[in-house]
Write a structure and sequence with these properties.
- The protein is mainly alpha-helical.
- It is built from 10 helices and 7 strands.
- It folds into 2 domains: 135 residues, no CATH class; 149 residues, Alpha/alpha barrel (Glycosyltransferase).
- It has a 3-stranded antiparallel beta sheet. A two-stranded antiparallel sheet has the order 2-3. Strands 6-7 form a two-stranded antiparallel sheet.
- Helix 3 runs antiparallel to helix 4, helix 3 runs parallel beside helix 5 and helix 6 packs across helix 7.
- The protein binds 2-acetamido-2-deoxy-beta-D-glucopyranose (8 copies).
- The site of one 2-acetamido-2-deoxy-beta-D-glucopyranose has 2 residues, from loops.
- One of its GO terms (cellular component) is endomembrane system.
- Its main location: membrane.
- Its EC number is 3.2.1.101.
């Protein structure tokens, strides 16, 4: 995944997307269904203006340049929420077609066109979209075909197989393929992505092995210091290089990391009813204030104005 400064980098949760996007121009009263309805209608149709599949030379499932493949995965997950909460079928066929077109031959969101650039983090955004489809009971492929849950598990399984104990005491590398720049970096979003998928798969399937995986990933993030459980402030940092055995941490903070960890902790609390995960959910929500300036969310690490505090 490459980092762009666009608002779409914040799509790790649709809530964060709504906040970052809405602050530009759209009025929203979160106590009014009509207001939410109008705002999300505007955003969803605006987002789909960038869809490439309908356009000459376009590819199904992809958005126009400069939007990357992973961002498309994030966008489809958000569009499923729009379909579900606003009960609007306008884009249902496009979402369905896109999620199936990009599965790759092995049904794990590793399509051949992406192999030169695909990282664990890229893959997980499509896995999250498939998970979203399963949870929302979005129209499944025909019975004999791979179902949404199967696709989400395909992403989880391939990521879990890449767990690398040889350096840093564990963790996923950013890149899947050795030849890609970033193979020597263990970034938080890849690992938090695995943590997040594990939490949702546990809740959806009732299989506790997924909880064990999420615990393992969380502990590793905390042990390396990529996640910092401070006295009052809990933060999530960007990543660390294997050349120092992950002892040197890049301390940039991104909204999608905190968004994925907050929601992952909440899914785990919902499934396990273990108060530890409730506490973590609340602590990370508190820590997310680094991204707020007078209640307005912004990407503190790359947007110039704001009250960013390290
Ligand atoms: C459904 O969503 C589309 C795209 O946002 C919008 O143009 C259309 O008005 C919506 N339909 C209804 C009934 O709200
Ligand atoms: C892969 O790229 C080719 C050439 O641009 C395109 O025709 C095809 O639809 C793409 N497939 C996927 C799954 O993106
Ligand atoms: C899911 O959707 C199918 C039809 O697409 C329906 O038959 C089924 O009852 C739904 N399940 C739930 C739990 O809503
Ligand atoms: C790398 O870090 C892990 C986890 O802290 C530790 O177990 C391991 O011994 C370290 N390896 C080296 C070569 O320092
Ligand atoms: C539970 O999930 C694990 C991890 O994916 C898998 O190996 C195991 O077969 C699953 N167990 C059941 C009963 O489905
Ligand atoms: C996280 O690490 C800190 C020390 O760095 C430790 O005090 C805390 O108990 C750890 N949390 C978990 C859940 O292991
Ligand atoms: C888990 O979520 C469901 C709704 O999806 C809710 O009814 C239930 O109360 C939640 N459980 C906990 C412990 O929060
Ligand atoms: C917060 O945002 C306002 C504009 O709304 C800006 O003037 C101010 O500089 C920001 N605060 C900080 C600390 O950057």
């Amino acid at each position: 995944m490459k980092v762009t400064t666009s608002a779409i980098t914040s799509i790790s949760t649709s809530i964060l997307l709504l906040f970052t996007t809405l602050t530009n121009a759209i009025d929203l009263d979160i106590t009014s269904f009509d207001s939410i309805y109008a705002a999300t209608r505007l955003i969803s149709s605006g987002l789909m203006d960038y869809y490439w599949g309908y356009k000459p030379g376009g590819t199904i499932g992809m958005f126009t340049n400069p939007y990357y493949w992973w961002e498309a995965g994030g966008a489809w997950g958000t569009m499923i929420d729009y379909w579900y909460f606003m009960q609007n079928d306008t884009y249902a066929d496009v979402i369905y077609e896109s999620l199936l077109y990009q599965t790759g031959d092995d049904y794990n969101y590793m399509p051949l066109n992406q192999t030169t650039t695909e990282g664990n983090d890229d893959q997980v955004f499509w896995g999250i979209a498939a998970m979203q489809a399963a949870e929302r009971n979005f129209t499944n492929p025909p019975e004999k075909k791979e179902q949404w849950l199967y696709l989400a598990q395909g992403v989880f399984n391939t990521m879990a197989w890449r767990w690398d104990d040889d350096t840093c005491g564990g963790g996923l590398r950013w890149q899947i393929f050795r030849w890609n720049a970033g193979y020597d970096y263990k970034n938080s979003v890849s690992n938090i992505g695995l943590f997040h998928m594990g939490a949702r798969l546990a809740r959806f399937t009732g299989n506790d092995s997924y909880v064990d995986w999420s615990e393992k990933v969380y502990d590793w993030l905390n042990d390396t210091g990529l996640v910092s459980e401070g006295e009052d402030w809990w933060f999530v940092y960007d990543g660390a290089g294997v050349e120092t055995n992950c002892t040197t941490i890049s301390k940039l903070q991104w909204t999608y990391n905190v968004g994925l960890i907050i929601s992952g902790c909440a899914y785990l609390y919902n499934y396990t009813e273990d108060e530890r995960w409730l506490e973590k959910t609340e602590k990370f929500i508190h820590g997310a204030q680094v991204f707020l300036n007078h209640s307005v969310a912004y990407e503190a690490a790359c947007q110039p104005s704001g009250n960013y505090q390290s």
